Amino acid sequence: MVEPIIELQGVSFSTQHEEIIRDLSYQFLEGTTTALAGPSGGGKSTVLKLAAGLLIPSAGTVRFRGQDMAAMNRGQTMEFRRQSAVVFQDSALWANQNLYQNLELPLRLHFPQLSKGDREKRMRQVLSEVGYTKDLLIRPAQLSMGEQKLIAFARAMLCQPRVLFLDEWTESLDGNAAQRLIDRVKRHKEQGTTVIFVSHDLRIIKTLADAIIMILGGRISLTRTAAEIAADEHLAQHIEKGIAS
Ligand SMILES: Nc1ncnc2c1ncn2[C@@H]1O[C@H](COP(=O)(O)OP(=O)(O)O)[C@@H](O)[C@H]1O
Ligand SMILES: [Mg+2]
Questions:
Q1: Edge-to-edge strands of the sheet including 33-37?
Q2: Superfamily of domain 4-96+162-244
Q3: Relative to the CA of 131, which of 45, 66, 71, 147 has its CA 20 to 30 Å away?
Q4: Is 158 in the pocket of ligand 1 (CB under 6 A)?
Q5: Using CA atoms, how far apart are residues 245 and 210, in angstroms rounded to an integer?
Q6: What is the C-alpha separation between 219 and 216, in angstroms, rounded?
Q7: So where are the chain's domains?
Q8: pTM for the complete prediction?
């Protein structure tokens, strides 16, 4: 039986003014790929950050392999961070560091035993996979949004994560660049990585996702398995409607 790797149980998330996520429960199964879809402002990014342990729920629990993430000690949190990687919707590169430093930092933190040469070898490998060929000694502000996405994606790949969180990760990319990233995620999937991604693109969802959840008004409005996605002629419409509403 496939075990849940990340489990949200009765999770709510509130700011001072409003409840953004409302009593949401879902189990992300180990080794599977789940797409989060739905309209802008529905709560997709917030759910992704809660699942990635980056936001602490106001109510309810987020568990990683059965363990409450809010109760993890420093060592356990570091181990979860080493095993997971996030590509943020806005890329979230460190603006005051050059690209080389942006890529090197997670490797230095999580794999201190690697030599400089080994770090650079891994960096070259992922950069060639994502198709980034330009200078590394420039800062993120000198890149287009699409190039920032490539570097953010490369940074997420470097530590060979077992859980991958991707937020609108092919936005601002041309078709070839997007396809390279999709192929890379497909390879990860084949190697048993758990992937949770946000996308509005039904083609990507159909290619990669084992399950889809639609998030609307901070709640799950619909869930479908891969087989149901393939068979559901109305799903495209539903996704489009969801996005339009
Ligand atoms: N830190 C925050 N403070 C206040 N409001 C927030 C915060 N984060 C998200 N929101 C609000 O919560 C809602 C859901 O946001 P988000 O999760 O980014 O949606 P999505 O990714 O589906 O577009 C939006 O209305 C957004 O403005
Ligand atoms: Mg978002």
A1: 84-87, 163-167, 194-198, 33-37, 211-216, 219-225
A2: P-loop containing nucleotide triphosphate hydrolases (3.40.50.300)
A3: 45
A4: no
A5: 25
A6: 5
A7: 4-96+162-244
A8: 0.93
- Among residues 69, 237, 85, 77, which one has the least CA distance to residue 160? 85
Q: Tens-of-pLDDT digits for all 245 residues of the chain?
A: 788 999 999 999 999 999 999 999 999 999 999 999 999 999 999 999 999 999 999 999 999 999 999 999 999 999 999 999 999 998 899 999 999 999 999 999 999 999 999 999 999 999 999 999 999 999 999 999 999 999 999 999 999 999 999 999 898 899 999 999 999 999 999 999 999 999 988 889 999 999 999 999 999 998 998 888 888 777 777 776 665 44
Cα 233 from Cα 135, distance rounded (Å) = 45
**Which SS3 state, helix, strand or coil, does residue 214 take?**
strand
Residue 28, judged by CB atoms within 10 A of its CB (0-12, 13-18, 19+), counts as buried
Tokens of 207: 């290619």
Instruction: Please tell me the residue having the least CA distance from ligand 1 atom 27.
Output: 41
Q: Tell me the CA–centroid distance for residue 115 and ligand 2, in Å.
A: 37
User: What residue owns the CA closest to ligand 1's atom 4?
Assistant: 15
Query: Would you give the end-to-end CA distance of the chain in angstroms?
Result: 37
